[in-house]
Amino acid sequence: MRAYVEFAKKAFQNNIAYRADCVAGIINAIIMIFVNICVWKAIYEDEQAVDGVQFKMLITYVVLAFLMQCIYAMDEYHIENKVRSGSIGLDLLKPINFSGYIFSYNLGILIFRVVMQLTPALIISIILFKMLPPFSLTMFALFLLSMILGYLVLYCLNFIVWISSFWFYWTFSLVTIKDAAVMILSGALLPLWFMPQAMVDFIKLTPFASIYYVPITIYLGQVPMEEIAFALLKQLIWVLGLFIVGRLLWRSALKKLVVQGG
Fold it and tell me: Which pick of 223, 239, 248, 253 has the fewest CB atoms within 10 Å?
């Protein structure tokens, strides 16, 4: 366990070395939020609500979606680089669980982004965009739990794509397709409120809604209290389901791995 904590600390320290990137990330998040709010303001014109969605609620949704995207960002090519360079052979010889190492590495990045990027970006967003507070303290606690589960859903989904590098020389196309699917179907780009009901029903059968849409709607109090337990359970089931698929693919990938040279 101590080794994985050290991996997370190492990832945190590696990221903190590039302070300019950190500041640039905060500025980029604020600009993207501002641009999106301007677009939605143009769509709403002088209306206070569209399709029953109040403008203030929408602003809060947009701010939370972009801030969550900031902290959910992961190193998409860490495994691919190791496979292509052959250094994964050395990693597999170490007395550690490689999957645990990858999770610890990304956990370090997550903690760095929460501390160094989310906190200042959230304070600036509250002042500039006047986002709504959580519906209640209970909803806020459930939002945090749902956000953690949403991160794990995205991580397990990413892990499945990452280990495809054992079969594909380049995973850029797969990562791009996955990112596009996540952006559109998770509600990160467009809240599911504005999508056709048939499409929303389909999306709710996939893991994508669990990543952004469910946590944010819990924060806004849009999920009835009696349905929150089911929503969290559904997120947990997706985490376990994707984790099992990832483990099966990982075992298959190890049988395919051949490292030449040295």
Answer: 248
